Amino acid sequence: MSLATEQNKRRSLSAFARFLAVAGPGLVVMLADTDAGSIITAAQSGAQWGYKLLLLQLVLMPILYVVQELTVRLGVVTGRGHAELILQHFGKYWAWFSVGTLCLSCIGALLSELSGLAGVGALMGVPAGVTMIVVVGALLLMAFTGSYLSVERIAIAIGAFELVFLAVAWAAGPKAGELLAESIDVPWRDPKYLYLVSANIGAVIMPWMVFFQQSSVIEKGLTTDDMPAARLDTAIGSVLTQLIMAAVVIATAATLGRAGGVGSLDTVQQIADAITPHLGQSMGKLAFGLGMSGAAIVATIVVTLTAARTLAEVMGKKHSLELEPREAPWFYGVYTAALVLGAVIVASGADLVAISVGVQVMNALLLPIVLGFLFLLARRLPEPFRVQGVWAWVSGLVIAVTVVFGVWSGVSGLFG
Questions:
Q1: What is the tens place of the pLDDT at every residue in 325-359?
Q2: What is the 3-state secondary structure (H, E, C) of the chain?
Q3: By percentage, how much of the chain surpasses pLDDT 90?
Q4: What's the pLDDT score for residue 15?
Q5: CA angle 126, 130, 135 (to 5 degrees)
Q6: What is the pLDDT of residue 413?
Q7: Residue 26 to residue 288: CA distance in whole angstroms
C-alpha cells in the first residue's frame, strides 16, 4: 500500500481508530528511552540515594514531551529528517558536527544495550558470545525482511515487557510516608548526587531520540492532519517511560532499604538481586530478564536504525526500511556493521554499569547541541506550525533550564 493510500485511509477513520493508526513512533522511541542504560541509572539512583531522585523522574515527564513534540512537528511539517534540516539551514559543517555527536551517543547507547543483553544472558547461564549471535542474527533478519510498520510493531511488542517493572515496584511494597518525605529531601550540593542527576537527565533526553522520531513520522507518512494523534502518542509515551524509571527507583530503594541500607550496584546480577528478591530467585530473574531484555532490544533497534538513517541522510543516500537492501546498500550496511562491531566489543567483556551511567552523563553534556538545533529549527517552520508566542517562551525556557542544569550537574558531578 502506498503512503498516499495509507494517508487517505487514515482521514476516513474515527478519532480513536485514527489514533491507533498514527500511534507508534512516539511509543517506540519512549520505550527505547527506558533502555538498559536508563534502567541501570535508575537502579543506581535508588541504590545510592533511596527515593531522593524519584521526584526528578516525574519532573522530566513534561520536559520530555516538550522536546519530542518539537521533533514530531519538524518531521510532519517538513517531511525531512533532522540531519537534512540542519544541512539545509545551517550548512554542511554543522550538519556533520551534529551527526558526529549523534554517532557518539549511538555508539555508547549500543554498547550499553548489548551489554545489558549479555548481562541478562549471563543471569540465565548463557555465554555472552552466544547471546550476541542470537540478538544480532534476529535483528538483522527483522530489518532485512520487514517494513517500517513491521519493525514498529515488533519494537512495541518487545518493549511492552518493560511494564514488568511497574509490577515489581508494587510488589516491593514501599512505605508511602518514607517515599514522600525522602523524595523532597534533595542533597543538591553533593557532587555524587549531582552526577546521578545529570545521568538521569541524560537517560531521558537522548540525541538519538530526536533523530529517530523525526525520521519515523516521515517514514510512516504522517501529515499535518495527524498532528493531534501524534502528539497524544508522544504524551502517552512520555508518561509511560518515566513511570517505568520511577518504578525501578522505587523497587531498588524499597528493597535495599529493607536490607538495612543503600549502596552502589556494580553488576547486572546485583541489580537483579536488588530489584526482585521478594519475588523469589527464579521469578525474580525471569521478571528482571524480561524487563531488561525488552528495554535493551527495542533501544538497540532504535539506535542502530538512527545511526544508519542519519549517516545515509547527510550523505544523500537512500535510507528506508521500505527499500530492499540492494536499493539502499549504505543504509543496510551501516546498520549491519554497527550491530556486528558492537556485539564483538561486548562479547570481549565490558563494565556494563560504568558504561551505562557514563553514557547518560555524556548525553546530558551533549544537550546544548541537540536541543539548540531542535529549537532553532522549530522557530523556522512556516506558519501556522512555527513555534511562536507563549509556546515558544515555554518550550525555550524548558529547553534552556534543562540544558543548563544537565550540563551543570554533569560537570559538578565529574569535577566537584
A1: 899 999 999 999 999 999 998 887 756 566 666 77
A2: CCHHHHHHHHHCCCHHHHHHHHCCHHHHHHHHHCCHHHHHHHHHHHHHHCCCCHHHHHHHHHHHHHHHHHHHHHHHHHCCCHHHHHHHHHCHHHHHHHHHHHHHHHHHHHHHHHHHHHHHHHHCCCCHHHHHHHHHHHHHHHHHHCCHHHHHHHHHHHHHHHHHHHHHHHHHCCCHHHHHHHHCCCCCCCHHHHHHHHHHHHHHCCHHHHHHHHHHHHHCCCCHHHHHHHHHHHHHHHHHHHHHHHHHHHHHHHHHHHCCCCCCCCCHHHHHHHHCHHHCHHHHHHHHHHHHHHHHHHHHHHHHHHHHHHHHHHCCCCCCCCCCCCCCHHHHHHHHHHHHHHHHHHHCCCCHHHHHHHHHHHHHHCHHHHHHHHHHHHCCCCCCCCCCHHHHHHHHHHHHHHHHHHHHHHHHHHHC
A3: 33
A4: 76
A5: 105
A6: 59
A7: 24
In the chain the domains, ranked by start, together with CATH numbers, are 19-303+346-415 (1.20.1740)
- Give pLDDT, residue 270: 74
Residue 257 is predicted with a pLDDT of 56
Q: Do you find a cis peptide bond into 384, omega within 30 degrees of 0?
A: yes
pLDDT at 260 over 50: no
Percentage of the chain with pLDDT > 70?
A: 89
Of 298, 208, 291, nearest to 24 by C-alpha is 298
pLDDT for 258 equals 52
Q: Check whether 94 has a pLDDT greater than 50.
A: yes
